[in-house]
Amino acid sequence: MGINNMPRNYQSVLATxxxxxxxxTANVAAFVRSGGVKSGDDSYVKNNLVTTVNAALxxxxxxxxxxxxxxxxHAENIAAADSWSDLVAGTNxxxxxxxxxxxxxxxxxxxxxxxxxxxxxxxxxxxxxxEPGTGTINVAAxxxxxxxxxxxxxxxxxxxxxxxxxxxIGITTTAAADDLTLAGNRLYAATAAECTTMLQLVGADRLLxxxxxxVCATSAVAVGPIRFLTTASTDILxxxxxxxxxxxxxxxxxxxxxxxxxxxxxxFMGVLSDAAGALTGAFSTPGNIQFGRxxxxxxxxxxxxxxxxxxxx
Length: 313
What we know:
Elements: E1 14-16, E2 19-21, E3 28-32, H1 43-47, E4 49-50, H2 53-57, E5 67-70, E6 75-78, E7 92-95, E8 104-107, E9 114-116, E10 122-124, E11 127-129, E12 137-139, E13 143-145, E14 151-153, E15 156-158, E16 160-162, E17 165-167, E18 169-173, E19 181-183, E20 186-188, E21 197-201, E22 208-216, E23 226-228, E24 236-245, E25 254-255, E26 261-270, E27 283-284, E28 288-291, E29 295-298, E30 304-308
Parallel strand pairs: 3-4, 3-5, 5-7, 6-8, 7-10, 8-11, 9-13, 10-14, 11-15, 12-17, 13-18, 14-19, 15-20, 18-21, 19-22, 20-22, 21-23, 22-24, 23-25, 24-26, 25-27, 26-28, 26-29
Antiparallel strand pairs: 1-2, 16-17, 29-30
């Protein structure tokens, strides 16, 4: 069983052609497949198989660094607030499979949530559909991270099908979500599925964002898909980020605030305004951010500029 290509240095597992290696002090708490046991399953899998993630979480030791392996073909609805209520600190939820064969989680009601409210939880290599894609459902806050050391790694995140199926804010942090890692994720929403913002960062000190893509439309031209808010995030590191705001005449890709600080390298932003100011304000209010190499923005009429990080004469 293989896992998708993720930034290897952030994974909590090592995938080889012979199997998956985990730290010797950790346990495999359970395997998860919504369809139950299949013909050909190994006896170890059969004896430790459950049909929902929350059932698997009941088997995890708090702080033990245990693993829940979610198998290919698993499909699960996130149908209630705090759907993973038995989550404990240090849990690693690992999706198995590649491409569209990875496990799929679908948020199905306006109040559906997954709360990462205990420390050092990781969700890796899953397909996260933050809205159902049918009916008329605006999911208010599908994922909230309020504990330190958590991570989302190598996931495909779908956050809006159309104007009727979308999110208000896709991923939210509180000021307790320090040392957050977001790596190798691909997050998309249809242009018609406008959100307030897709990633709202409140006091996320020492945030690490590397090799992420975020493409969506916000409901206001002067708010980006990434927004820093309320409490400044400090000592952040952003690398290899592509973010585009598909809102008509959008002016911002990242909305900053006074007091944020850290470093940014290899940043590409897309906005849809043809105004000259859109080439200088796509990262608004950058505070104390230092910009390194390859930080650029492009606008609707194919103008582009090295926004920050230009070398001195």
